[in-house]
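#help-structures
NK: newbie question, is this the right format to request a structure? protein is Sterol uptake control protein
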Amino acid sequence: MSGSTKTLATRHPSNRLHPSLSPSRESLWAEASSHYDVGVRLFHTEVLDITPFNCDACFAFSSLLAAHAWPFSHQTSDLFLSSLPSAEQAFNTTWASLLRGVHTLLDTAWDWIANGPLGPLLETHTIYPAIVRKANPEISAKLTGLGQLWDPPPSRYNPADIEALSEALVLIQEACGILTSSTSERPLSAISLALAWPTCVSATFLELVDRLEPEALIILAHYSLILNQVDGVWFMHGMSRQLLQTVHERIGKVWESWIAWPLQDLALNELNNHMDDGIVHDTLLFP
């Protein structure tokens, strides 16, 4: 957690004036940047020693950092993969790493926060098998079919890598199972599902993503099926498109056919929203 806060202070978009800002807003942006820098320094000190007395403030601050990172970057910040040269990547903080930082804090202070004033904000990530089994058979079959990418296992992967790929795929299947159920049956909201997946996948899976392993990138591309459900949320709007563009640029033509479905669903979702004259409604994938 502390490592993320250190790098965030140098890479957060509020530390530079955006060229499109009008002069009247530049002073507000600069003032916000100053407050942000002070806040991060104080947060970095507090988060090193989480207690019942500072856990609520640290949880609120870290959650706000994660929520605002994407919109404050004008939808250009890195979600999972760094766009910086290799030598500079150690000084960059991705959106996924910010979310995982919040999750790390909750691992330490869940009981304190749950019994405090911010308790109503917490939502446990519980999967109900009966609901997952109701998933659209076509969607379930498509996702299950991705498993053939590592069956038989490629020689470059060890058992831990295969387990990480399988677990990441199962988490997407579970989320899609919930999203295809009726709204009244859903144990978790679409926003909670979208925020949960990056925190629940293993560090090994994210390492495979960093290595640009095609199987991991293909699974990551299918995470956009979940992101499409929350594209109308202000702090997540545009994430699905950015994620798929990044994966498409890096995966190579040999593997492009494996992400055709997520690309198609993104196009249908954007067309659906456009035809509604700017009012966002559910994608065609999850009616």
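mod (FA): yep, format's fine, and the tokens are attached above. Residues 140 and 161 are 23 Å apart (CA to CA).
NK: thank you!
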